[in-house]
Amino acid sequence: MLYSVKPENLHTVLPAYDHAKVIETIGRYDATMQEDAEVLVKIGLACKAKSVLEIGTSLGNTAKLLAHYFGDVYTLDNALEEFGGHGERTGEVCRDIENVTQIIGNSLTPESYSSIEQPVDMVFVDDGHDYHHVVTNTFTAMQLIAPDGVLVHHDTYWESVMLGLKHLATVFDVWLVEDTYLAVVKSTIG
Ligand SMILES: C[S@@+](CC[C@H](N)C(=O)[O-])C[C@H]1O[C@@H](n2cnc3c(N)ncnc32)[C@H](O)[C@@H]1O
User: Fold this and answer.
1) Which 3-state string (H, E, C) describes 12-30?
2) Which terminus of the chain has fewer Cβ atoms in its 10 Å neighbourhood, N or C?
3) Does any ligand 1 atom lie closer than 6 A to the CB of residue 27?
4) Which residue range(s) make up the domain with 79?
5) How many domains, in total, are found in the chain?
6) What is the pLDDT of residues 117-145, one digit of tens each?
């Protein structure tokens, strides 16, 4: 099912959401991403995430933020400039952070996930914004997530991301978080 939820009502999806306090945010964010970053961290805190996987590292600003709040952070990127990546600069912001493991690989290839200790508690999907990436990465990531874990998509303003989410909502519960570009996906199984 596809739902819409205001950030202040996310406790209806994740009961501990209201108690999740973001003490500070770090890293370089524009005004929009700042709001999304706070909600993302609160979602992770609400599901008591110890380990987090980010798909789509870019320079590593969000990986750095996640590393500040959560135990083990994996971040995956193919680092290819033709797909919007930063080549050798990929992950430069989070590279030296002790609890960050940077993986260079294609998110569409299952082997790219083989070094990740499973299950992870939260997955943040923020790489290719086409329908194929959105749907394929969700099905792959759902197999890595703990039963109480959560998957969060970014950039719902992309038409192709929305199309993917609508398809996914036929299988999973999907909540579009209003006033942000985030969508929460939870398994309806179990
Ligand atoms: C929007 S940026 C990620 C931003 C990052 N999550 C942040 O918040 O700072 C998208 C990234 O996805 C990566 N990407 C695109 N397609 C990919 C694929 N198939 N596998 C792995 N990474 C991919 C690009 O290289 C780019 O760095």
Assistant:
1) HCCCCHHHCCCCCCCCCCC
2) C
3) no
4) 2-186
5) 1
6) 999 999 999 999 999 999 999 999 999 99
